[in-house]
Amino acid sequence: MAELPDRVIGNARTSDFGWELLTDLTDIGDRMAGSAGERRGAERVVEAFEAVGLSNAGIEEFDIPGWWRGDASLALSGPVTRHHEGSHEVIGLPGTPAGTVTAPLVDVGDGTPAAFEAAGDRLEGAVVMASSRTPEGHGRWIHRMEKYVGAVEAGAVGFIFRNHVEGSLPATGEIGYHERPGPIPAVGVSSEVGARLARLAERDDANGSDDTDDPLTVTVDVDCRNEPTTSVNAVADVGPDTAEAIWVTAHVDAHDVSDGANDNGAGSALVAEVGRLLSQVEADLERRVHLVTFGAEEIGLWGAYHAAETTPHEEIACVLNLDGACSSRDLRVGTNGFEALGELFESVTADLDAPLSTGEGISPHGDQWAFVQEGIPAVMASTTSDSSGRGWGHTHADTLDKLDPRDLREVAVLIAEATYRLASSDVSIPRRSREETRDMIDEGYVRELKTGGRWPY
Prior knowledge:
This protein is of the alpha/beta class. It folds into 2 domains: 6-65 and 228-447, Aminopeptidase; 69-225, Glucose Oxidase, domain 1 (3-Layer(bba) Sandwich), CATH 3.50.30. Helix content is 32%, strand content 24%. It has helices at 6-12, 17-28, 36-51, 113-119, 144-153, 191-207, 261-279, 302-310, 339-351, 369-372, 405-423, 434-438, 443-451, and strands at residues 55-77, 82-84, 90-92, 99-107, 127-131, 158-162, 186-189, 217-238, 245-251, 288-294, 316-322, 331-334, 356-359, 378-383. Strands 1, 2, 3, 4, 5, 6, 7, 8, 9, 10, 11, 12, 13 and 14 form a 14-stranded mixed sheet that branches. Strand 12 (331-334), helix 9 (339-351) and strand 13 (356-359) form a beta-alpha-beta unit. 53% of the residues are buried. The mean pLDDT is 94.
């Protein structure tokens, strides 16, 4: 049985409030960190907070290292000559430096540590290509940044990120993080362009590229600007004015090539919808619920870091972060090793007869990481689908038509129920020390965080 009253759950399953907010966010278009669109998105979230009577609704501003896209191209020479310059084929990755490099191409497949090791000295002075896919059975997701770091550490002069999803156009994503710009130029290419490159690289390897008069080389050319700017968080509260609060968060920014429907307009809409639902039972709450849609998540979690650094940690009971949570109604929760929060979601989904999958490993990807690194209990809630990896995320195709309002409503019920159970009781979620968290992080993530300037220990 749910603990939320039937009237609240019934309202959640019939309301268009969250879907209308999501629609408005996607219609803004470009919500890149530091852009006018990102600010308009945050302002629209504040309007939603105010419309349902939440308290302390407003905007918080902070500084970030901005990035502005220019043109990008990829040229092949050798046994095959081609020139790719359309955004449906090749785009620069945020945080890349501007520049042009020409070098042999080495394909490391899915970019696993084993693949980089097998490539060995061939990566020195090469342009390295890695797929966006993480192979089944690897045990954890391999993030784009880790593959970029692997290329950099191996002495590559350029990086190509190949989308593994057919027909989904180039995948974008940050590679500079807190050390912008990154050390080598980086572009994303479509699955189709990547397949051609992989085929040609394989043929070159089979023929012995060092022995041929016409080896395959690629030229990566990127134009962009890396300059300081500002970003914004949208905030509000519901419940009593207690010092300690349950945080429900998402990020409102999206990559400039995308409408950011599932990543993460849906998360922002869910935060506002959870606030709306809890406002109907505000008298039941014993602790404040703090609602935040962060800015600048996609380029290094800047909004979450700003909030974590400016809020006394004892005032944050726990964080429920929502990211990519509308691809289905099948909830997935990454617990980051906080068993009590995992057990909470297990009880919620069991009581509401809803599916749940969980992951226990620590992930430094997602706004929850800014809190997890400090030992503050935090999870990331998303949804699972048949797509591998991000699916349509980080591409032109992350649009509203891929989503279903019924999924948004069902996920809102689950998150609101979990938040209600936390906020209507004085249950304490055990914390960890920073040292305990540090010792739980996978070595691949350690390398990535250090290279990206985000290693906090």
